[in-house]
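Bug report (template v2)

What were you trying to do?
Predict the complex of my protein with iron/sulfur cluster.

What happened?
Run completed; filing so the output is reviewed.

Input:
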Amino acid sequence: MAYKTWETEKTQFCDHVKAMVGLEAEAVYPPEWLPDQAPRLIAHRCSMGAVCSLSDKGSCVWAGTNPAFDPFIEPDVEKS
Ligand code: SF4
């Protein structure tokens, strides 16, 4: 039987909540009779997103209050 689970892909400090937060992905694993298939990722969320979205300040895409800012995206590093 296939099963779903939330897995943490990345953790980092978030200034908005002043705490470590995790970027989580919901993975669907295939049933045991299809063992060679990779899990499918069907959703992402921040571990503090629900709490964060209740604040009165716009925060980030994972709280649903600021689609223009994703703190988990790596900044481009200039090559010198
Ligand atoms: S939803 Fe965004 S702003 Fe809020 S805690 Fe998570 S990463 Fe930080």
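What did the reviewer find?
The CA atoms of residues 56 and 65 lie 9 Å apart. The longest helix spans residues 49-52.
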